[in-house]
Each structure stands twice: as C-alpha cells, then as structure tokens.
Design a protein that fits this description.
Radius of gyration of chain B: 24 Å
Oligomer: heterodimer
Number of helices of chain A: 7
Largest sheet of chain A: none
Strand order of the largest sheet of chain B: 1-2
Number of helices of chain B: 8
Structural class of chain A: mainly alpha
Largest interface: A-B, 124 and 119 residues
Helix content of chain A: 55-70%
Order of helices and strands of chain B: HHHEHHHEHH
Order of helices and strands of chain A: HHHHHHH
Distance between the termini of chain A: 42 Å
Structural class of chain B: mainly alpha
Strand content of chain A: under 5%
Strand content of chain B: under 5%
Number of strands of chain B: 2
C-alpha cells in the first residue's frame, strides 16, 4: 500500500488528527498526554509500594490511581498505532543510543519532562492542541514557557555539540 | 459514556494518531527545536495548521456550550512546568507523544526517556506531598489567588460569558493570527530557497572558473 511506502506530509497527518481531536473534544475532552502517564506512574508505584503509597498524599489527593482512566489508553493507542505503522512499512528495528552522553541527556530530559508535566498539570500536546485552541489563559502561559524552555534547551544542546566537535 | 467505552474510544483515537505520526514523522519537539536551531519549519507548519483547525472547531462548539474544555486553574506553575518540559524535550530529543511513537518503532532511547518521565512524575509527587503546591484540583477556586501564585481560570467560554460575544469570534481572531504566522514562515522559506539557489549557482560558477584555470 502506498501509505506504508511514502512518508506522509505532516500537514495532512496533523489536519486529520485535528479533525479527530474535535470529535474527542465533543465526546470526552481534547487530546492530552501526561495525565495517562501520571496514572501509569501511580499504578506502578502502587504495585511496588502497596499500602505504603498512602504515605505520599499526592496519590490520594491529586491522582488516586485508577486503571480505567481513558487518558492512559490514548498513550497505549499511540504506541500500538506507531508499532503497526512501523512494522507495515518495514521501519521497525531496534535503535539503541550509542554514546554515554546520549543516555545522560535522555535521562535528564525525561526527568525534566515528567517533573514539568506534573508541575504544570499539562504537557505540550494539551498546550498546543487543547488549551491554546480553547483560548485558555494557561495555554498562553504554557506556550511562553515551552518556547523559552526549548530555546534554553537548544542553547545547551548547541554547546554540547560544539564541545563534542 | 461508561469508562470502558471511553477507554476504547481513547485507544482508537490514540492508535490513529500514532499511526499518522509514525507515517509523517511529525514531532512536536522538532516543531520548536528545528525552528529555533536550524530555521527549518516542516513540523512547525503542520502544528500551526492543526492549531488553526482546532481553534475554529473548539471555539465554534464552545459558542453553543458543546465540548469538554479543560478545567483547572493556571498560574506560575503552568509557565514554570512547561519551561522545564521545553528544556527536557530538547535534551531527550522527543516529547511525551514522540517517545511513545518512537518506542513503537523500536527506539530504546525513547523508551528510556519515557521511563524517566515516569520517574520524574514520581519525584514530583514526593515534592508536592511536601510543598502542597500548586493547589490540588479540589481547592482550585477559578479566581486569582496571589498567595498560591495562581491566576484562576479563563478561556473562550468565560470571555463569551463576560462580554456576550460568541466564543468563535475570538477563535477566528486567533486563527487569523496563527495564519499570519504560517504565511510568514512560507515567505521565509521562499527567501531561504532563493538564497540557496544563489549560493549553488555561485558555487558552480566558481567550480567551472577554477576548472577553466586548470585547463588553461
């Protein structure tokens, strides 16, 4: 199938996702990522810590772990959809970062993303495809924050690249 | 809708979105990073198109009271959180969405980023349990709360309620601004293209000139 041979124009892909997202908005709420991941974190922490988790009030007040939280399944769906797409187009193969510096950057980046999402109550998807289109005040705050952050991140990245060269 | 149906709809939506992103190599991180670092806008343009469609769609439905807009107070934490997120996504080379998509393609680095996103969230839960800030959803008032560095809640719907002008009116203004930005990027790309062609021509000229010099 042509679809699995050629790279799709991202404008077409995002326009299609936007239309589907309007249906999501009408049914349950706009496309969001972060809430599902938090729930997964809570469920994993519960599995490991058991009743000990009650000693961390965040998990009883802000995010009591539930497995039937729909946002979890958006994320699992994305994993599944991407896997199907990659296999069908013969693009699935194991990619492992080679340098220690990459592992370090990814680790720090992941930690900052997780911490930032929870601090803000949202991630970048809800910023661009949820809050901003709803014209929520938080969308503009978040947008300024993420652009400033991406700029600082890019500067750090450039410094590291120059350092390597 | 029952939770089961919601989860199924969410999974379906996620699958289609994941498939489309995998096939188009769209990445939100690239949309910002490439525009800042490399002045290339492939992903930025796609993001703007989606934002235009969504702005008109969401505010249109909000004008008649339909849809489920996000409801929570925002404040300094919204800015600060996304600032940290912005740094993190550039360092990790992927945002939360693309970590899932890239993990689906077999990228172990993306899976690693995802695992540490979970760890970061758990760390935050510990910090929150000591600081109790930002306010928990139950204690959000929707009003400005200077003590908690919160600005309350406002969106196209509250604008409509306050001013009596339909939400879609504001949406159309925002969409027009996004479109102006999109046009600006197209203009910039054309200028880059012209510049590039000029360089190539000069390069060729230099090459043939030096070749002629060798032959003579």
């Amino acid at each position: 199938m042509e679809f699995f041979r050629k790279t799709l124009d991202p404008i077409i892909a995002l326009a299609a996702i936007a239309v589907l997202n309007i249906f999501m908005f009408l049914l349950m709420g706009a496309w969001t990522v972060g809430g599902g991941e938090t729930m997964m974190t809570g469920l994993m922490a519960q599995a490991v810590l058991g009743d000990e988790l009650e000693r961390i009030p965040f998990w009883s007040i802000v995010f009591p772990p539930h497995a039937d939280y729909w946002k979890i399944y958006i994320s699992l769906g994305m994993l599944f959809g991407a896997f199907v797409g990659a296999v069908a187009s013969k693009e699935f193969y194991w990619r492992v970062p080679r340098h220690l510096s990459e592992w370090v950057l990814i680790t720090i980046g992941g930690l900052l993303m997780g911490f930032g999402i929870r601090l803000a109550y949202i991630c970048n998807v809800s910023t661009f495809f949820g809050l901003m289109p709803e014209m929520n005040l938080g969308g503009y705050l978040a947008m300024s924050g993420i652009i400033a952050g991406a700029w600082v991140g890019s500067m750090i990245y450039k410094k590291i690249l120059e350092g390597d060269a | 809708m029952t939770p089961l149906v919601e989860c199924l709809v969410a999974f379906l939506f996620g699958s289609v979105a994941g498939l489309l992103m995998q096939r188009s190599r769209f990445c939100n991180t690239a949309a910002l990073r490439d525009a800042i670092m490399f002045k290339t806008y492939r992903n930025t343009k796609a993001m703007l198109v989606a934002m235009m469609i969504l702005t008109v769609g969401f505010t249109g439905f909000m004008s008649v009271g339909a849809g489920h807009p996000l409801q929570f107070d925002v404040g300094l934490n919204t800015f600060a959180g996304l600032f940290l997120f912005g740094i993190g996504m550039v360092l990790a080379g992927a945002c939360t969405v693309s970590t899932w998509v890239k993990t689906g393609e077999g990228n172990i680095g993306a899976l690693w980023a995802l695992i540490f996103t979970f760890v970061g969230m758990f760390l935050f839960s510990l910090v929150w349990s000591a600081s109790w800030w930002p306010p928990a959803p139950q204690t959000m008032t929707g009003q400005i709360n200077p003590a908690a560095l919160q600005l309350g809640f406002a969106n196209a719907q509250t604008l409509q309620d306050k001013l009596g002008i339909p939400a879609v009116f504001f949406g159309l203004i925002q969409a027009a601004l996004l479109f102006a930005l999109y046009r600006g990027i197209l203009r910039r790309e054309r200028a880059q293209h012209v510049e590039h062609e000029k360089h190539q021509k000069e390069h060729q000229k230099n090459k043939s000139a030096s070749a002629a010099a060798v032959h003579s």
